[in-house]
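ok here's Phosphoribosyl-ATP pyrophosphatase, seq below lol
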Amino acid sequence: MAEFSLSDLQKIVSDRAHSGDPDSWTAKLFARGIDKAAQKLGEEAVETVIAAVKGDKQGLVSESADLIYHWLVVLSIAGVPLDDVLKELEGRTRRSGIAEKASRPKG
Ligand SMILES: N=c1c2ncn([C@@H]3O[C@H](COP(=O)(O)OP(=O)(O)OP(=O)(O)O)[C@@H](O)[C@H]3O)c2ncn1[C@@H]1O[C@H](COP(=O)(O)O)[C@@H](O)[C@H]1O
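and the structure came out like this:
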């Protein structure tokens, strides 16, 4: 299991966004705004789909990483906390009862 979470990456995105570092891609995306960041997110989504349908597992790993990073940038520029998305997913899981079923002892 990787010792790196979406929250870790989200913190890095927040820090780098306003770093003023001319080499920071994150800072560049923030400076260019939501349209450019959303465009990049769309491109990475398409590249992820292409890797998936080609059966390119290593490409799928790499494109998924690009996709998730750009998704977090878009959330951050839009002012939507990652936690809101996680809570939405948590709520859906609760409503479906899947979490309870998975934790119930079998037999
Ligand atoms: N995970 C990523 C990440 N994934 C992809 N990218 C960048 O996303 C960019 C997109 O690449 P593309 O080839 O699609 O785009 P491009 O041709 O460079 O740009 P355009 O011509 O489309 O404008 C590249 O510059 C990648 O380096 C990322 N940049 C940063 N991170 C994370 O953010 C952290 C901070 O990065 P900086 O902000 O650059 O310091 C890093 O340590 C990483 O953890």
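fwiw Residues 92 and 98 are 9 Å apart (CA to CA). kinda neat tbh
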